């Protein structure tokens, strides 16, 4: 998260929500229906708060998963790798700023 007084969590309804501890304000950034439809294993928000990275179809004991990107403004979901939506990646994570991503496919880093 961009500040030390905010955190991302799933609320009582199952939606991804940002909570601001200073203002006590909650902001829903992704509805619970996306979690259920995609069977999300893990999720994280981009530093610019425009996207949420979703880990789906997680394979136990292997670190392999498919990744999708949820656009907060229009609620569209797209594969992380447009040319291979079924690619199983070892790793994907947001960079330090904006909506940069780093990922690993077949033990090769992709940026």
UniProtKB/TrEMBL annotation:
Single biological process term from Gene Ontology: proteolysis
GO cellular-component term (any): plasma membrane
InterPro entries documented for this protein: Serine_Prot_S9B/DPPIV
Keywords: Aminopeptidase, Glycoprotein, Hydrolase, Protease, Serine protease
KW Phosphoprotein (keyword) present: no
UniProt GO MF annotations: aminopeptidase activity; dipeptidyl-peptidase activity; serine-type peptidase activity
Key word Protease present: yes
Name of this chain's protein: DPPIV_N domain-containing protein
């Amino acid at each position: 998260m961009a500040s030390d007084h905010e955190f991302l969590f799933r609320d009582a309804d199952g939606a991804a929500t940002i909570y601001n501890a200073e203002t006590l304000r909650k902001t829903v950034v992704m509805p619970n229906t996306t979690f259920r439809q995609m069977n999300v294993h893990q999720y994280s928000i981009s530093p610019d708060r425009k996207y949420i990275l979703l880990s789906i179809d997680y394979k136990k004991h292997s670190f392999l998963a498919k990744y999708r990107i949820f656009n907060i403004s229009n609620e569209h979901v797209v594969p992380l790798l447009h040319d291979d939506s079924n690619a199983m990646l070892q790793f994907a994570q947001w960079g330090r700023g904006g909506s940069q991503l780093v990922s690993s496919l077949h033990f090769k880093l992709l940026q």
